[in-house]
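Example 5.3 — FAD/NAD(P)-binding domain-containing protein
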Amino acid sequence: MTVSSAVTNVLVIGGGPAGLSTALTLARTLRSVTIYDSGEYRNARASHSHTIPGFDGKDAADWRSAARADLGKYHNVERHHGQIVSLERLAGGSVSDPTPTRFRATDDEGKVIECRKVVLATGLQDVLPDIPGLAQQWGKRAIHCIFCHGTETAHGAMGFLITPQQAALNPMIVGGALTMWPTLDHSRKVFLTHGLDPDVEADLKTSGLEPHLKILKARGFEIISDPIAQVEEHKDGLHFTFTTDREPLVLPYLMVMPEKSHPPASVASFLTPSFLHAPLDPGGTVPPVPADAPPAHMPPRSGADPRTPARGVFWAGNAGSAAANVSMSVGHGQVCGVVVAGELGGEDLAAEAAALASE
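Solution (predicted structure tokens):
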């Protein structure tokens, strides 16, 4: 399908749950929308998704296919498989500047798209602890979320990884193991501390285990502090070998958190402080709209404000919220679409009023 206008109203960069939901919401207003899908998804390694009503336990690719089919019903939506490689502002400034915005983007085939608004539904890429073999298990046997994958681990053995490099995250990992995961009644529970020795005071504090040693012992947790040399998948689960002479360990699943996340490399070149009017947050997400920004034309009815410090640039899903799963990203995509539609309508109204006033 082809959008008839030379300038599309909204360019949505990203064809995952957030981008598809944003595009569908805007499609309902009959605004022209162009969506670019790079085919790279944060949850690509996961074979199934959960907490999505009607799609629980199914492959996320099936949901994306159904959502694309929904978009195909709207003549005002143009969908491309490819990447946006450059993005520049032609008009407009910060979120406090009411000047109508305009942008120019170029895709990986050299096509130029001009638009009034940009939605960053670009997702994130996760960086796992640097342990050979671990990244290949991400979303399979190396998991992070009880709601997404945890139920399938119930009643079996379970590992929880904390590392020296994750000092800021370790208390959350330990707290989650003690508050969220116990309902799954694991037959064996092991903390792998990857070199952090709980008998050394400094290591104990870094590990996040210090406040909970008594309850960990009471609940039967094991603590293995030997550094991990490699993780390999076998039929019976993950095989852990160590840099010491400790015997290899076999666990069906391992709970692990990314050490950090960052935007996909394909969009990093234009997610700059000068374009966004602020640097990316430390977690790699798009900066939020400032607290003192003027209110949106159509404020969010629920969820986070999808605006950024740059007027006309919005975010949806993981681009601005690292913790958002598929269903959360779908919901936020709708919030984003509503706020974008409100800003477009507000600018149209202001332009019409100015024209009438000059007559």
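Remark. The first helix runs from residue 17 to 27.
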